[in-house]
Amino acid sequence: MESGKQSVAVPPSSFYNEMYDGGAVRPHYERVHRQLSGMSREERLNRQQLMNSRLLEEGITFTLSGASREALERTIPFDFVPRIIPAEEWSVIEKGIEQRVRALNAFLADIYHEQCILKDGLIPRRMIVGNRYFRTEMMKLAVPKGVYVTAAGIDLVRDEKGDYYVLEDNLRTPSGFSYIYKSRSIMKHDFPELFFSYKVRGIDRTLQDFHNALKELAPSGRSEPVIVLLTPGSYNSAYFEHTFLAQQMGLELVEGRDLVCRDHHIYIRHMSGLKKVDVIYRRIDDDFLDPLAFRPDSLLGVAGLMNAYRFGNVAIANAPGTGVADDKAIYTFVPEMIRYYLNERPILNNVPTYLMSRPEEREYVLERLEQMVVKETSLSGGYGMLVGPTSTEEERMAFAEKIRANPDHYIAQPALKLSTSPVVIDGELEERHIDLRVFALYDGSRVHVLPGGLTRVAMKAGSLVVNSSQGGGCKDTWVLA
């Protein structure tokens, strides 16, 4: 071995490691292992700093939860050790995601129209009509092409055996698309000798798939519909992503104040006059979409938007009311939805989940809080969680009180042994927990699954929280051709 080079140690672990199988390197990681072993600590550190500097230069940022005003915005920590998924493994994931998105879309169409799944007793009616994301305004409303979920982000985890499980569904305004493309761009530019040593499936055409899915929703039948991306503005945590997607897909980036409703149509205010809008890709929550329909104090939406939507003059992606399907309590019923609507067996299993609204399940969990991850059903981004194995007794007691006071608001899952991957920390390789957010685009006829998705990394040693808003990082994800 050359002077100054350091071999990469195989970390002893009870978790499934993406790169190592016991003491051996998994075959699809051999070239990565060889490259890392051939680099000194200083070389790895310099390479990591170079890539993170590029993120800073390009303004690829996210807003941290609970940070001071000065430290509120920061770059996403990027790790240059890729996550690699063999083709046969990806094939199962892809089919499972397609199946899940089709079932979730069918569920939304059902509960806003005939409600057959409720009448047949598969899901308790109160869990739907009492859900904070169920929108009575959407009842009997014909959405363009029957598409409720244009863009979905499905989070997957692996257990200690390496089996994949769906952790949660993100169907309202899933974020993370931009980090996939930027991660890939950085790896190609700054580590080409590694990237081009593999046959990796490309992701560039998926932006065109995204644009086509939005275009398909246009109610006017125009060959070149006007599509806008509605953002809350530059103070939003994912504003970089909004600008990136608008630029890459050729959409007009607008805020609510840029739009106006006239005669049940939506227009962009331009210096030259008004320009009619056909499709709105919204990145703001339902509550703020239209002050006449939802929160009257909203300054982010467009007064009259829901009327224009009801008249069929504009499409909204994702449709209002989709949040009821990504509620963490409703998540427990998705395998039943797949059987009910598609007459198929679920390809990807849920993580075992306990509903706190069920007395026997609630008591079972309360007796084992130190072994559980408890989540508030309506929250995402790592908020409203108790991670039992790393919690204090005081935290568990406080959470137990919350559960008893509002059992319908919580679910619990056993703390999984999430898979790990090597990451570079100060030039050294260390083990960190990861998950995978897979993005799917539905155009009404087929589901397009973006090959790879976003691997999120819990940068803190031992942490199971990978969310960007909680300090998590990301990796480039390679699906082998």
TrEMBL record:
Origin: domain of life: Bacteria
Protein name (database record): Circularly permuted ATP-grasp type 2 domain-containing protein
Domain (Circularly permuted ATP-grasp type): residue spans on this chain: 82-458
Coiled-coil segments on the chain, per record: none
SUPFAM superfamilies in UniProt: Glutathione synthetase ATP-binding domain-like
Pfam families named among the record's database cross-references: CP_ATPgrasp_2
InterPro entries: ATP-dep_Glu-Cys_Ligase-2, CP_ATPgrasp_2, UCP005522
